[in-house]
Amino acid sequence: MKVVVDLNRCQAYAQCVYAAPDHFALEGAEVLVYDPAPGDAARAEIERAVQACPVRAITAFPDAAPGAA
Amino acid sequence: MSVAAGSPPRRIVVVGASLCGLSAAQALREEGFSGEIVLVGDEPERPYDRPPLSKQVLRGRCGPDTTLPCRPDLDLRFRLGTAAAGLDPRARRVVLADGGTIAYDRVLIATGTRARPWPGDPGSGPLHTLRTRRDAERLGARLADRPRRVVVVGGGFIGCEAAASIRAMGLDVTQVVRETVPLVQALGDAVGAMVAEVARGAGVDLLTDRGIDGIEAAGGETAVVRLDEGRRIETGCVLVALGAVRNVEWLAGAGLAVSDAGVRVDAECRALTPDGRVVPDVFAAGDVAQWPSAVYGGARLAVEHWGNAVAQGRVAARNMAAAGGPLARHDHLPDFWSHLYGLTVKLVGVPDGADRFAVVQGTLRERRFVGIYGAGERTVAAVSVDSARWLPAYRAAIAEGAPFPPFTGALDQPGFAPHPLATA
């Protein structure tokens, strides 16, 4: 998986942290730290995080197939 | 109103395979463009995200793979590891550094910026910059050796974020800043002073108002940084964070209005000639583009922001895909975020030219506040520290040209108390 969070939009509601605690974390009050390249096994968790974000700041897609565009 | 001309394009070439270029490519498909999209990039990697490189990647919280997520059905062609070397708008082709050429019907210039190097830096040894994934990997490998002191040169966002990240790894850090406080040009003296206090509290040896006379290689990975006051700092790693240079050299001779401030475009992201005429089928967006901002009375802006790269890439894409009909305008209000020592700093608007600053919610001492910047009678920007949920209201007010302050009913202060603002 590949993940990016629009941190201009993020307001630290932390719903992604509950949905995918191994891949999103809050440090301090508002610093969201996330894994930009979680394994494909995390797909269900990551998709829950995408859906849970109240400001729709998370984008995630599976890895591109090797050689494909 | 500007209207798209000509027949529908068949091949669109995006020069610059980064956030802006990928954003444009995605938007082209969303607009229904079914022709060929070619992304040309000088780096070998697929488009990747840069903000984590100075933060969680540098600290080792995650690996250096920050490849941007990409819809699987975009059908993009990549020409990676090959820089563009020229643009010929009359022949409608991009010339590549390897001698090849790519014909286009429309082209997007999204070549961004590069780190400004220390004069004479060969790009190896003890001197580092931090812009690309390769930079982050090289610096990360050096930090993993735990050099006994890291010197960070520069008081902008990359310098401050890197100093915070490196200090968080438990390494000794000296940060040398020419200005009176870090981030003074971006955020002004009051917020910059708060950041200085936080940095010193975290144990960074922050030297302000200090210049550097020279950096001497001392063999292998060691160097001596000579300050203008005579002090010498022996170090095993120097991070040079002196801002960015726009990648415009490849456009020499193309007939475009190009300067150190970027490629001049109109509000529709179309490249212009030096006398202000539209160059057919040539667009520019992202860090490399300088556009007239409707929000700021037509003032030309060029910013190095994540949000602008996305937004301007999308507007350019929409206009490139258009065949007739009205063109979209880039009316973006600049914004960015930074993570420093566990604090989240966010800015909306452009504080350039602001002469007043006021905290409207919270306090600097708590390190949790919203502040606003005034220029004349207008509010031109707002900053939040760990108070991001308040910022959208100020964003809307600034975009509408609100007075200073934009609203008084939202104050949690004894009264509205603006202070003179210094940005140098």
From TrEMBL, chain A:
<keyword id="KW-0479">Metal-binding</keyword>
<keyword id="KW-0408">Iron</keyword>
<dbReference type="GO" id="GO:0046872">
    <property type="term" value="F:metal ion binding"/>
</dbReference>
<keyword id="KW-0249">Electron transport</keyword>
<dbReference type="GO" id="GO:0051536">
    <property type="term" value="F:iron-sulfur cluster binding"/>
</dbReference>
<dbReference type="InterPro" id="IPR051269">
    <property type="entry name" value="Fe-S_cluster_ET"/>
</dbReference>
<dbReference type="Pfam" id="PF13370">
    <property type="entry name" value="Fer4_13"/>
</dbReference>
<keyword id="KW-0813">Transport</keyword>
<keyword id="KW-0411">Iron-sulfur</keyword>
<protein>
    <submittedName>
        <fullName>Ferredoxin</fullName>
    </submittedName>
</protein>
